[in-house]
Amino acid sequence: MKFKVKVRKLIENGKPLKATCSVTMDDQFTIHGVKVITTEKHTFIAMPSESYTDADGNEKFRDVCHPITSELRQEMEDAVLAAYNEKVVEESLKAIENA
User: Fold this and answer.
1) What's the pTM?
2) One digit per residue, pLDDT tens: the chain, 99 residues?
3) Nearest CA among 38, 30, 9, 13 for reference residue 21
4) Fold of the 3-98 domain
5) Distances (CA, A) of 73 to 15, 36, 45, 77, 90
6) Which end of the chain is more exposed for a tag (fewer CB within 10 A), N or C?
7) Can you tell me the distance from the alpha carbon of 49 to that of 62, in angstroms, rounded to the nearest whole number?
8) C-alpha span between 29 and 92 (Å, rounded)
């Protein structure tokens, strides 16, 4: 599957959420709101989600859409993280040029 990733927003506020992206698959289907999250252990993507309240009154989240196979999830994650890293480098170079 072919992925096109557009990094919509880089986020630098000291929190785990680092970016939001749009992912287009095979020029036929687009997912907006894919998030790049960094923890102490690793960086990963999170799919768009919605919140709901369970029977016990706890707020829960569920993905609106997601890859079915682990192989497809890995391909998508690789594409998103590559685009994210490229955007971070691009923005760093801009900052150096403007300094």
Assistant:
1) 0.89
2) 999 999 999 999 889 999 999 999 999 999 999 999 999 999 999 999 999 999 999 999 999 999 999 999 999 999 999 999 999 999 988 888 887
3) 9
4) Arylsulfatase, C-terminal domain (3.30.1120)
5) 24, 13, 9, 6, 26
6) C
7) 5
8) 31
SS3 sequence of the chain: CCEEEEEEEECCCCCCEEEEEEEEECCCEEEEEEEEEECCCCEEEECCEEEEECCCCCEEEEECCCCCCHHHHHHHHHHHHHHHHHHHHHHHHHHHHHC
Do residues 18 and 7 lie in contact, with contact meaning Cβ atoms separated by under 8 Å? no
Extents of the domains making up the chain: 3-98
Residues 33, 60: Cα–Cα separation, whole Å = 18
- Residue in the block written with tokens 């252990």: 41
The residue behind tokens 């960094």 is 38
Give the DSSP letter of residue 86.
Answer: H
Written as six digits, the tokens of 22 are: 């749009």
